[in-house]
Amino acid sequence: MTAPQSLLQAAFNRLSARLGHRLLDSAAQLAELAQQAPGQFQQEWSVFWEEVEVEAQRLERGPFAGGTTEAPGAAGPTWPSASPQDPPQPSSDPQELIDALRARVAHLTQRLEQDPGRS
User: Which of 30, 88, 102, 118 is the most exposed place for a label (fewest CB within 10 A)?
Assistant: First the structure.
């Protein structure tokens, strides 16, 4: 064998050996993950359902329930004015609250665009 052929053969042999070792290492890691997966999946599944139950309880209590049984807005502040500069009125309908917040943001954006130097 000539020198270039020997170098090429040696490089091929080393690449094969390295890839073989990496393949074996990867297979071992995959086998280990496969053994751990059922237990880990079961744990994640349990945590997921606990979160679902907590979220369902939160939804049943309502969006303004902060650990109390008072009516929405009873413990919170009431705002006399409905101008865009004032906070929106508390509402039992979340969509109304979202719409009011969007209107306020739009108003503030308009003010900033009209006079960007003033804040």
Answer: 118
Q: Which two tokens stand for residue 73?
A: 């807005």
| DSSP reduced 3-state for 36 | helix
User: Quick one: 4 and 56 in the same domain?
Assistant: yes
- Rounded Cα distance, 29 and 21, in Å: 12
Task: Give the other-Cβ count within 10 Å of 90's Cβ.
Answer: 18
Whether residue 13 lies inside any domain: the answer is yes
pLDDT in tens, 72-94: 444 444 444 445 555 555 567 88
Secondary structure of the chain: what % helix, strand, coil (to 5)? Answer: 65, 0, 35
Q: How many residues does the chain have?
A: 119
pTM strictly above 0.85: no
**Residue 91 has which token pair?**
């509402």
Is position 10 within any domain? yes
